[in-house]
Design a protein that fits this description.
Length: 274
């Protein structure tokens, strides 16, 4: 996992969510729409903690963990800057496959919005989801992010030189067979795993979760440019809010899942794994 730690130590993940706010807006909407009014939430694989900060602002007690020590330090500093430290019960460097710092059924809900992107071995993905199951209370909600083969196939065909070795048909074929992507260029997004969309719900259910929803985090608006957003904003708050209402509604449209760069699984922890 050293290449993943090195990548995220240098990459501005907080800034990415600022530059691509739609994913954050859609995901946060679904979290707030489904979470109980209060509780203790784990943000596992939290990066610099952008979701954790927003939930803390809304009164939730948060615990944050990430594999990359630098990101955990940034998250703690962000909490301090925002006067939110009292809302956090801890900041931990931890591997999603082994959440040893946390006892069984500690959390009322849990987020895991990054680790499954970077676990290329099936046994590691299972370990991570089973650990999420272990630390979440029975009946607790989980929000888990995935990336799909379908969308990355589209991206590879549109921008082949940016995503080597998917700049050849043979490279794309190997990717589709394995779901694995290892960037040929140093310092780029790498060590990734992409799911078949129809495998996500069964995978989570096999590890002890009941499925509530699978949503596309970019909905119908993933291709919109800044000038197109600006057009609707200058039309006034009422019209902009109407557009966002449609965007949020359509994020649940199953026919659009293949167009989304990120998918959000929402489920409930069963008492026992199957």
């Amino acid at each position: 996992m050293e290449n993943i730690i090195n990548y995220y130590s240098a990459f501005d993940e907080w800034g990415r969510l600022d530059r691509e706010p739609l994913e954050f807006q859609v995901n946060l909407h679904h979290m707030l729409a489904n979470l109980p009014a209060s509780g203790h939430i784990l943000d596992n694989g939290a990066g610099p903690g952008k979701y954790a900060m927003e939930l803390a602002k809304r009164g939730y007690q948060m615990t944050l963990s990430d594999l990359t020590p630098k990101l955990v330090d940034i998250a703690k500093e962000k909490a301090k800057e925002s006067s939110l430290l009292d809302q956090f019960r801890g900041f931990h460097v931890a591997d999603a496959r082994d959440l040893e710092p946390f006892p069984d059924q500690q959390f009322d809900a849990a987020l895991m919005l990054g680790p499954l992107y970077h676990l290329q071995k099936a046994e590691d993905r299972i370990k991570a989801v089973r650990e999420l199951h272990r630390v979440t209370k029975t009946g607790g909600l989980v929000f888990v992010a995935f990336m799909s083969k379908t969308r990355f196939l589209t991206t590879s065909i549109l921008h082949p030189e940016a995503w080597k070795p998917n700049h050849t048909a043979q490279g794309i074929e190997r990717f589709l067979e394995s779901g694995e992507f290892n960037h040929q260029d140093e310092g780029r997004f790498t060590g990734a795993y992409y799911f078949e969309i129809n495998e996500i719900k069964p995978f989570m259910e096999e590890q002890g979760f009941q499925t509530l929803k699978l949503i596309g985090s970019s909905s119908i608006a993933g291709a919109m440019k800044q000038e197109q957003w600006d057009y609707w904003r200058q039309r006034g708050e009422a019209e902009y809010n109407q557009i966002m209402e449609w965007v949020l509604k359509e994020s649940e449209n199953p026919h659009l899942l293949g167009t989304a760069s990120h998918l959000l699984y929402i489920g409930v922890r069963d008492e026992e794994r199957k």
